[in-house]
Amino acid sequence: MHDGSGRIVVQNLTKNFGPVAAVQNLSFQVEPGSVTGFLGPNGSGKTTTLRMMLGLVTPTAGWSTINGAPFHQLGNPARVVGAVLEAQGFHPTRSARDHLRVYCAAMGVPQHQADEKLNLVGLGAAGTRAAGGFSLGMKQRLALATALLGDPQVLVLDEPANGLDPEGIAWLRTFLKAFAASGRTVLISSHLLAEVEQTIDQVVIISHGQTMYYGKLDDLRNSQESRVIVQPGNPNKLVAALYEEKITNVTPLPDNKVSVVGATVQQIGDIAAKAGVALYGVQEERADLEQLFFRLTSGQYAAPGLAQQPPPGYGAAPGGYAQPVQPQGYQQQPYQQPGQQSGYTAPPPGYQQQQPMAPQQGTPPGGWGQPQQPNPWGQPQQQQPQQPQQPQQPQPVQPPQQTPPPQQTQPPQAPEPPQDQQPGQGGIGGNA
């Protein structure tokens, strides 16, 4: 039925939901003996791809195999693939142990496997509790225990660390590494990039339903240029020595630090020693998985500025670590203002002056009054907001004060019946 290799192959996989192309010509391969991360932005097609691999969604084109065969041809697939796409599907009043025993019967697995897997995932003491009262993290553990019942060769997990506490995340990381080290295959999809980076050794990154990269994570890191942060005793002397050795990609940093690109820590140390420059700190920095992810996905569903600048930032390593965040935000703010005054620097405070003129009667009059006086922009703009203050003059006219005369005419009409004796409402009939 299958070759038992544990290999996952996805070839030209495509899925269209009406006019929406969820997955487009997606191809990658997951090898056994490794933990592979399946990464991509929201809406990139990760879950759809996993569902097609597991036979839950029919692809529009292309194919996928596990152990050399499509999922529906694996015979008893639960003995080959353990999958968790959602930590749901538990009967709320059924205990965790009984839940696993039901699956044991369906898979043809001995009943004692239920208790073994509960102990493995840390739910041994909660086996008699109803699954409906479990927290999200406990449900994740129970779902993983269900996937492990058949002793599968392949694990496919979607957001397995969702809801887990730090201790549970550390346990999951250790377990997945040990599972893969035994020659099995692990494919996990997650948005926790910092945690995934500590777990995986291969990565598949997709965006817009297409494969952007798949291979070893170390190879992806090595393809990026790193930089070395140096804290020398004499920065100018060190820079001069580096230039003499044809190392010119040097950038000054705050606190008398220097960023060097194109040289190793050993080279910089040797040059500094030869020049007689003391080094108080040397640190090599490489692009982490998050930076690599943003570069490859090009900021899908992000602001245009965020989507365009990460790639050049990584090409120039010194600017790639800080520039992708700060400059983009500040560039977008003036872009939102009127384009006619894009060459001026004063309009932004001018626009701030227009807003405080109306609420001068509020709490911030003192703080806003100071920037209005020194700016030449304030004089032409102060006349406009002063006009809305003039409409407040109609208040002394007080048309409602002219109404008291009719109010005075009404009270005399009201006292007349009491003067005729209020209890004498029947006396009114007497007057009749």
UniProtKB/TrEMBL annotation:
Comp. bias regions, Low complexity: 319-363, 370-390
Protein's UniProt keywords contain Transport: yes
Residue span, ABC transporter domain: 8-233
Annotated spans, Disordered: 304-432
Membrane-spanning segments: none
Ranges of biased composition (kind: Pro residues): 391-420
Gene Ontology terms, MF aspect: ATP binding; ATP hydrolysis activity
Pfam families for the chain: ABC_tran
Superkingdom of this protein's organism: Bacteria
The UniProt record lists the keyword ATP-binding: yes
InterPro entries in the record: AAA+_ATPase (IPR003593), ABC_transporter-like_ATP-bd (IPR003439), ABC_transporter-like_CS (IPR017871), P-loop_NTPase (IPR027417)
Family annotation (SUPFAM superfamilies): P-loop containing nucleoside triphosphate hydrolases
Alphabetical UniProt keywords: ATP-binding, Nucleotide-binding, Transport
Recorded family membership: Belongs to the ABC transporter superfamily.
Protein name (database record): ABC transporter
Lineage start: Bacteria, Bacillati, Actinomycetota, Actinomycetes, Pseudonocardiales
